[in-house]
Write a structure and sequence with these properties.
Blueprint: E1 6-11, H1 19-32, E2 37-42, H2 44-47, H3 54-70, E3 79-82, H4 88-97, H5 102-106, H6 109-117, H7 124-139, E4 144-146, H8 152-168, E5 177-179, H9 214-222, H10 239-252, H11 256-262, H12 268-294, H13 297-326
Parallel strand pairs: 1-2, 2-3, 4-5
Helix pairs in contact: 3-12, 4-7, 4-13, 7-8, 9-12, 10-12
The protein binds tryptophan.
């Protein structure tokens, strides 16, 4: 045991990662690696709540892993693994589902939203998804989970389930805290700046993928929606420009007010073309490393096998305790 506090987080391999995933999440995970014992999971079990093409799912699982590493997550420091390789996630999920009230799951806003969008595929997995997520977190004695706004309610359930189990039996689970990043940013859709940037947006000009090539990035930034005020200013009346300024500032580390000042007498065209170069320069090395990892399947396999081994040790120990307390016969 390292004695460090534990962090757990995961991304679904259900689509391509965007600049929003990077600035909002993965980049911050990199900084946590030295201070914490980090588990970064590719949550493939979660992703099948929406139908996936099997071969795409396999490819994307490796893509997410490659991007983790290309962004700076180091498998020597952190445990990178694939959720379905550690069956304890599903096993704990069953036990916890018997302690979860239907009302709790009915209240989940993400489920309610998905229900609206996904009318033809209202499967039970979509409903119990937060229980599986609680299992992910609780198996590793997780102290903190870096989460965005959209996952806070799910984390709250994980906390409640940990308390509930601890109270019913005896102290077993660490109760996880949300880790709200000070530097995290909510990056919005380039075509509809009222919406969060997401790989599932209909218009592909709305998001920048970490694996987009430079010309694609330039084109998407150029086409991004702005306004007719024509002043580079961070203001709620100019959500498009506000979002572009956020991206600029997050990638360069420069204060927003300094960027505004520099562009006072300049138009959107110049600002956008400079921003495109900022993004290209930042993402190019990531993209190159990503492509290298994707071309080295043997190395990827080494990483996920080693990650699985490390994760399994902890998961097995937790599940054994849970089974024993629940009253299942030991083998
Ligand atoms: N539900 C999360 C999402 O869609 C992914 C996820 C699954 C997760 N298990 C997790 C995130 C555990 C943090 C911790 O983004």
């Amino acid at each position: 045991m390292s004695g460090k506090e534990v962090i757990f987080s995961g991304v679904q391999p259900s689509g391509d990662l965007t600049l929003g995933n990077y600035l909002g999440a993965i980049r911050n995970w990199v900084d946590l690696q030295d201070e914490y014992d980090c588990y970064y999971c590719v949550v493939d079990l979660h992703s099948i709540t929406v139908p996936q093409e099997p071969k795409d799912l396999r490819r994307r699982t490796l893509e997410v892993m490659s991007l983790y590493m290309a962004c700076g997550i180091d498998p020597k420091k952190s445990t990178i693994f694939i959720q379905s390789h550690v069956p304890e996630h599903v096993e704990l999920s069953w036990v916890l589902s018997t302690m979860t009230y239907l009302g709790e799951l009915n209240r989940m806003t993400q489920f309610k939203d998905k229900t609206k969008k996904n009318e033809k595929n209202l499967n039970a997995g979509l409903f119990t998804y937060p229980v599986l997520m609680a299992s992910d977190i609780l198996l590793y004695n997780t102290n903190a989970v870096p989460v965005g706004d959209d996952q806070k309610q799910h984390l709250e359930l994980a906390r409640d389930l940990a308390d509930r189990f601890n109270n019913r039996y005896s102290n077993t689970f660490q109760v996880p805290e949300p880790l709200i990043s000070k530097v995290g940013a909510r990056i919005m859709d380039l075509q509809d700046p009222e919406k969060k940037m997401s790989k599932s947006a209909e218009n592909e000009n709305g998001y920048i993928l970490l694996k987009d090539d430079p010309d694609t990035i330039r084109r998407k930034v150029k086409r991004s929606i702005t306004d007719s005020i024509n002043k580079v200013k961070y203001s709620d009346d100019q959500p498009g420009i506000k979002n572009l300024l956020t991206i600029y500032s997050k990638l360069t580390g420069e204060e927003i007010k300094d960027i505004e000042k520099r562009y006072t007498d300049k138009g959107y065209g110049e600002f956008k073309s400079d921003l495109a170069e900022v993004i290209v320069n930042h993402l190019s090395p990531i993209r190159e490393k990503y492509l290298e990892y994707m071309n080295d399947k043997d190395y990827l396999k080494e990483v996920y096998n080693e990650g699985c081994e490390k994760a399994s040790k902890v998961a097995r120990k937790t599940l054994r305790k849970v089974y024993k307390k629940t009253g299942f016969m030991a083998r």
